[in-house]
Design a protein that fits this description.
It is built from 2 helices and no strands. The chain has helices at residues 2-22, 25-59. The chain is rod-shaped and about 65 Å long. The mean pLDDT is 79.
Length: 65
Amino acid sequence: MKMILIAAGTAAQLAAYALILFVSIWTGIAFLLISYAAFTLVIIKLWKEAQEEKKEEHWNDYRDY
């Protein structure tokens, strides 16, 4: 899922720069916003995974035995 979002964000960003240069500035800006949203979703997913790993680490701590 993360790799798909990263690929979509990168493709949207490349398309946005091409659109800004050759077609329409507003369409390009829309694609830039889409790419930023995709990258933000990746960061949120990574943060949630880190939080889950931190919770699991606390429960799987066997150093007291």
